[in-house]
Write a structure and sequence with these properties.
- This protein is 65% helix and 9% strand.
- The chain is α+β, with helices and mostly antiparallel strands and 386 residues long.
- The chain folds into two domains: 227 residues, no CATH class; 140 residues, C8orf32 fold.
- Strands 5-4-3-6 form a four-stranded antiparallel β-sheet. A two-stranded parallel sheet has the order 1-2.
- Helix 2 packs across helix 3 and helix 9 runs antiparallel to helix 12.
- The chain is elongated, with a radius of gyration of 30 Å.
- The protein starts with 13 loop residues before the first helix and ends with a strand.
Length: 386
């Protein structure tokens, strides 16, 4: 069985039950309201939908226009994360957010879209209310019959309008579920949603043709880009958290590079020091993998305990490198595990002024042997997040 007749094929599920209940509730509501009240609700629903679409389109165009202007304005402000003094929670959030909006286009576009949507929707809604008031539409509640009973004709029309209103509401729910299943097609919930006959019919015959290939093809690509940018924002969080250079770490870094003239000599010396002084914390890994507990630690913690995992090695290296005037990044991605696969990993990139280039290094792998400072084919074992 196919088409609308396949709603109940394979048995009922809660998605099917919920969608049918939504339509039936709208029918009952329409029957009780009668023709006039149901017509008012239907027109209000249509107006709300139209205002939402117009607001989203206008906010998207406005955000695209404002995005480069905002970026240039923030660059001109020359906002620098302070390297002295303690940054409280709100200052950390401020620098993470502001520098993120400046440097990451999707975050900037999303912020502008949300602000623009809220403002434009409010403005359009105000205009719609003024128009309704000026035209005298929907003045007051529909009048009840003197005997308190509606005519069968009015109730029947109200119920019919309720069918249209309920169908519209159900399609909105189906559209939201369609977006979710397009983004996470292999999830257990997506498979459950797709087992609903009424959902698959509405999605295939209404939502998919209406949206074209955007939701199924373009939205996952956009989601992947958002995930990549989100990882960069997390890296920015570490830059803000680690902006302060503790005095004991600064002194140790300066002692390590004493007598080293070039950036490369300094960077190599710090790479060796971090890689040989810090031991890999297998207990931390075991605690996370078996109990789901992540022990967050600062570079000061790593420096004091001489224990950590890859992100801790990388953050400590970053702070020590900055203490001696080097420009450095913490990089996240995937590293080769030696068993034919790749797992989450972190390392560094440092800028060498005499070579005018960024070079990669992995102080975590020093203890495993080999040279992991700007080695040929470094990218074969380290796949950075784009």
């Amino acid at each position: 069985m196919s088409g609308w007749g396949g709603w109940f094929e394979g048995g009922m599920n809660w998605i099917t039950i919920g969608l049918i209940a939504l339509v039936l509730a709208s029918v009952v509501q329409g029957y009780l309201r009668g023709a006039s009240g149901s017509a008012q609700s239907f027109l209000s629903f249509g107006a709300e939908g139209a205002l939402t679409v117009l607001s989203a389109l206008a906010a998207w165009r406005l955000g695209a226009w404002l995005s480069p202007l905002l970026r240039d304005w923030l660059i001109a402000r020359n906002i620098v994360i302070p390297s002295v003094g303690d940054l409280g929670f709100f200052r950390q959030a401020y620098y993470t957010f502001v520098t993120g909006v400046r440097d990451f286009p999707l975050l900037r576009g999303g912020v502008l879209f949300l602000i623009g949507y809220a403002a434009i929707k409010q403005l359009l809604y105000w205009g719609w209310r003024e128009l309704v008031h000026a035209a005298g539409w929907f003045r007051g509640r529909p009048q009840q019959p003197a005997d308190g009973r509606r005519t069968l004709w009015s109730s029947g029309i109200g119920g019919g309008i309720g069918v249209l209103l309920g169908t519209g509401r159900a399609l909105l729910v189906i559209a939201a579920l369609f977006v979710f299943t397009s983004l996470f097609p292999s999830s257990q919930f997506s498979r459950y949603v797709q087992s609903s006959g009424i959902y698959t019919t509405g999605a295939s015959q209404v939502i998919a043709p209406f949206s074209g290939d955007f939701l199924q093809k373009q939205l996952p690509v956009l989601t992947q880009a958002v995930e990549q940018e989100y990882k960069k924002i997390l890296q920015r969080k570490y830059e803000v958290l680690d902006a302060k250079i503790p005095a004991d770490i600064a002194e140790a870094a300066k002692a390590v590079v004493e007598g080293k003239a070039s950036d490369e000599a300094k960077a190599r010396a710090l790479y060796q020091w971090v890689g040989t002084r810090v031991r890999y914390d297998w207990d931390k890994v075991e605690q996370y993998e078996t109990r789901g507990i992540w022990k967050e630690q600062t570079p000061e913690d790593t420096f004091a305990t001489k224990l950590g995992v890859c992100i801790d090695y990388s953050r400590l290296y970053s702070v020590m490198a900055r203490a001696v005037g080097l420009e450095v990044k913490v990089v996240t991605g995937r590293g080769y595990d030696g068993r034919g696969s790749y797992g989450p990993h972190a390392w560094n990139e440092v800028y060498l002024r005499e070579r005018a280039e960024w070079v990669p290094l992995d102080s975590t792998w020093v203890s495993s042997g080999g040279n992991w400072f700007d080695t040929p084919n470094f990218e074969d074992t380290h796949i950075r997040d784009v």
